[in-house]
Design goal:
The complex is a heterodimer. In chain A, α2 packs across α8 and α4 packs parallel to α6. Chain A is globular and about 70 Å long. The longest helix of chain A has 21 residues. Chain A has a single domain, classed as Rossmann fold (3-Layer(aba) Sandwich), CATH 3.40.50. By secondary structure, chain A is of the alpha/beta class. By secondary structure, chain B is α/β, with parallel strands linked by helices. Chain B folds into two domains: 238 residues, Rossmann fold (3-Layer(aba) Sandwich); 135 residues, Rossmann fold. Chain B contains 13 helices and 16 strands. Chain B is globular and about 70 Å long. At the A-B interface, β2, α4 and α6 of A face β3, α3, α5 and β9 of B. β2 of chain A pairs parallel with β9 of chain B.
């Protein structure tokens, strides 16, 4: 695994000067993941969304890698096509047989949990040698903070409003990472931008395997979470420490809880309210009338960790 | 020396054969009736090791075209096939493929769109995609389906064009009927289509490029569209040039339109696809009865050969435009709208009637075609022109 010093000497493949917000977790995730790709060339794809729209404003581009944006729901299918072209051109003798290239597709939670789930499932099942990264900020942020199936229960979003009759999103977040793990692909992991070592290690493993790999990365959105711009890492860290976002990996079918979560569990799981109270999207939960809902959210977190720990054999 | 093989085969089988001979680097496809036998035949070529193609068996047509877009942008030669609902599911990607100027060739087995569900032929699927920025060729026969596929690739990959091409054949009628087809040998096809030289390929790793950039408010979106229009306009001469070159090899004529007994025709049918033969058959019969009947078959729908049609219809006294597709609420079927618009430039004003026929595979019997010519003869004799479109043979 590369040291921090080694990572800092690698070329940043996402140039500065893009138009993402200050404190945006997406670019942090992308930079850490691409740093972990090592020296080999990487071809990058991206679903429609903040990341794409803010980094490719014609005639500028922030991408130092070859890059393709196609549409919203199909970054997995698109990159699977690029990877297929690589194989086809090798078979045609137009690319040397020993040439190595890495392929990575990025999508937000809207483009992955929801509209792109079929495309992702298909690409994973077909076994393309590619990494898919979901940067999960828990809503359709690019269109203005609408709920997705990745939005946590109780969160305010512009299509899961807060009022007398409703206290934010009614449903639980879908466990996408487990769904992709069920595809039986070589490598699946959940990570957070707050734990760079864990994330870069996982990204390195994802790039190293032959065949498909999937990373679900918690990526703060200060705008949508209503969290301070300078606290993006802190809030993501609390997501891990409270067990809201357990870090784990599934390597060739073997589940294991990752160091950040192992350490959080050992020290004692923090109450989920510590994560929630840093964000304006949850502020209604702290009103007396929502006490029951708040307790339910804590139960959901505990239940999910019990499930993950069970999968991890703990 | 070109060797020709004569086979008895269905349209789909010879389209698959054309795919094999064109040697695509990637085929990403999803099965749908009546296209399936194309992808099944191609799967055999893959299993037999007869192609180097990376065959991506995607989970939907949307992903089929998405993967084709990725593969084409990567620098691969890409071909695929679909039909009906599949083409409709690709709608978003059709526009992206043309907007990104990717020379993908797609065969479309023309089939009606739901609802009600129906698996048989009409052109509603392809006509729904007529504004998607694809060059569109239509085949009358299995032979034309084979020829069109090869010409399509050459046109798509021409540096003056770089547009995707939809090459259509009529569902079941052409896709599944066994016809006599002359095939070229592999070397002749290989040398005709040549090597594809991609521009700005993603896999040109030393020169990284960004595909699919944002050209929003204040950006050059408008100019990109203009460039697409210019490429489509240029494609006409390229189709003519390449089809002439292809005709030289095959000794089969190929025109943007094909005329039958039009030199002195009083009444004419303008038509697309497999029913063209029915129109020719009836026109020939009518000629023996003293009626000066003719047929204009449209083989290339995009770019639309308006000037050629106007020229072919010069001197005609009444015209029927037969559409195997609806454009609900419009003033006629899609081919009628184009034809009547083109005919505004004609020196003389000619009555044109829009006929809708054969939707969902309903039969185009010879007596129905004869009915059309009878209507036209009545108009020529001073009868009135129908003030709305005619549903030909509707019960």
């Amino acid at each position: 695994m590369p040291t921090l010093r080694e990572l800092t000497h690698r070329e940043d493949r996402l140039a500065g000067g893009h138009r993402l917000c200050a404190g945006c977790g997406a670019s942090i995730a992308v930079r850490q993941i691409l740093l972990a790709a090592g020296e080999e060339p990487v071809v990058t794809g991206c679903a429609t969304g903040c990341l794409e729209v803010s980094t490719t404003i014609y005639p500028y581009t922030s991408w130092k890698t070859p890059f393709i944006h196609n549409a919203f729901e199909n970054s997995a299918a698109t990159v699977s096509g690029v990877e297929a072209a690589f194989k086809g051109l090798k078979a045609a003798g137009k690319i040397p047989a020993d040439k190595k290239v890495k392929f990575v597709a990025f999508g937000g939670d809207g483009g992955t949990y929801d509209i792109g789930l079929q495309s992702l499932s298909g690409a994973m099942e077909r076994g393309h040698d590619m990494v898919y990264v979901c940067y999960d900020n828990g809503a359709y942020m690019n269109t203005g903070i609408q709920r997705s199936s990745g939005t946590p229960k109780g969160a305010w979003a512009t299509t899961s409003e807060v009022g007398k009759a409703q206290a934010g999103k009614i449903q639980k977040r879908k466990d996408l990472t487990s769904i992709i793990a069920a595809h039986g692909i070589p490598y699946v992991a959940q990570a957070s931008i707050s734990h760079w070592k864990d994330l870069t290690t996982k990204a390195e493993k994802a790039f190293a395997v032959e065949g498909p790999a999937f990373l679900n990365v918690l990526a703060t959105c200060p705008r949508g979470w209503r969290s301070p711009y300078n606290k993006s890492i802190e809030v993501a860290k609390l997501a891990v420490e409270t067990g809201f976002w357990p870090t784990f990996e599934v390597e060739n079918g073997i589940w294991s809880l990752s160091a950040p979560s192992v350490s959080a569990e050992r020290r004692g799981r923090k109450p989920v309210t510590e994560f929630l109270q840093m964000q304006g999207r949850f502020k209604h939960l702290f009103k007396p009338e929502n006490a029951e809902l708040l307790a339910e959210i804590q139960t959901d977190v505990d239940d999910y960790l019990t499930y993950i720990n069970g999968r991890c054999g703990g | 020396m070109t060797e020709k093989r004569t086979v008895a085969a269905t349209g789909n089988v010879v389209v698959a054969e054309a795919f094999r001979q064109c040697a695509p680097d990637v085929v990403a496809a999803y099965p749908i009736t009546p296209q399936t036998t194309i992808v099944e035949e191609f799967a055999k070529f893959v299993a037999q090791g007869r192609v180097h193609t990376e065959y991506v068996t995607v989970e939907s047509e949307h992903s089929a075209m998405s993967a084709c877009v990725g593969a084409s942008a990567a620098g691969a030669r890409v071909m695929t096939a679909t039909a009906s609902q599949g083409l409709a599911l690709m709608w978003e990607e059709l526009h992206i493929a043309s907007g990104m100027r990717l020379p993908i060739v797609m065969a479309n087995a023309n089939r009606a769109l739901s609802a009600p569900i129906n698996i048989h032929c009409d052109h509603g699927d392809a006509m729904g995609a007529r504004d998607a920025g694809w060059v569109m060729l239509f085949a009358e026969s299995a032979q034309e389906a084979y020829d069109n596929t090869i010409i399509s690739l050459k046109v798509a990959e021409d540096p003056q064009v770089l547009l995707p091409v939809l090459t259509c054949l009529d569902g079941f009628i052409t896709t599944h009927s066994i016809e006599r087809v002359d095939l070229l040998d592999d070397e002749t096809v290989e040398s005709f289509v040549g090597e594809y030289e991609p521009q700005n390929a993603l896999l040109d790793l030393d020169n990284p490029v960004t595909h699919g950039a944002f050209a929003g408010l204040g950006g050059p979106f408008f100019e990109f569209k203009r460039a697409q229009r210019d490429a489509m306009d240029r494609s006409k001469a390229v189709i003519e040039r390449e089809s002439a070159a292809f005709s030289k090899i095959t000794e089969r004529p190929f025109g943007l339109i094909e005329t039958f007994m039009m030199d002195d025709a009083d009444v004419a049918i303008v038509i697309i696809g497999s029913a063209s033969g029915n129109a020719r058959h009836v026109a020939r019969e009518l000629r023996s009865e003293g009626v000066k009947a003719g047929v204009v078959k449209v083989r290339c729908f995009r770019p639309f050969p308006g000037a050629e049609i106007v020229s072919a219809l010069r001197g005609v006294k009444a015209v029927a435009v037969l559409d195997r597709a609806e454009s609900f609420g419009a003033q006629g079927g899609p081919l009628f709208l184009e034809t009547r618009s083109a005919m505004y430039d004609a020196a003389e004003r000619v009555p044109l009637v829009s006929y809708i026929y054969g939707l969902g595979g309903s039969d185009v019997r010879l007596e129905l075609v004869r009915e059309v010519y009878t209507d036209l003869s009545d108009i020529v004799a001073g009868g009135s022109v129908p003030d709305s479109l005619v549903y030909l043979g509707s019960r």
